[in-house]
Specification:
Layout lengths: L14 H8 L8 H32 L4 H19 L2 E3 L12 E8 L9 E6 L2 E3 L2 E4 L1 E7 L2
Helix pairs in contact: 2-3
Length: about 150
Amino acid sequence: MRLPAVKCAPESVDTMVYDRCVGPRSAQITPPFYAYAGHRGMQRVLLDLIELLDDLDRALEAGDSSPLRQGIELVRRRFLAVLASHGVTPIVALGEPFDPAIHDAVSMLPAATREQAGRVIAVVRAGYRMGDAALRPAGVVVAKSS
């Protein structure tokens, strides 16, 4: 008995959906696909955690020097430590040359000096990398030459 051709792209579906799609040929799925699916799932969870970290940063911007603020700072530091334990580190963007691989330009402003042109002059949203790749690019304002 010949099985019908099935069109499924592992990079566009979750593991469970891919298993259903492939059906009886699921034994032929290679372990790298499962590693890829697990990695993508981990990236989604880490991005959700980064959104929570953004909420903590917003709370710190609005707060004062109360014990509540100190508690939020403690939780933020712990969040960063947990992310670092999974290989996630903040992208340093301010003053760096614009790099589209790790920066997302949200605005451009005239450069105050010639040396400032093409560099990041403000960070609107913090970026994070996982290893060498950007997990979430930093949202930045770039100086353009006038």
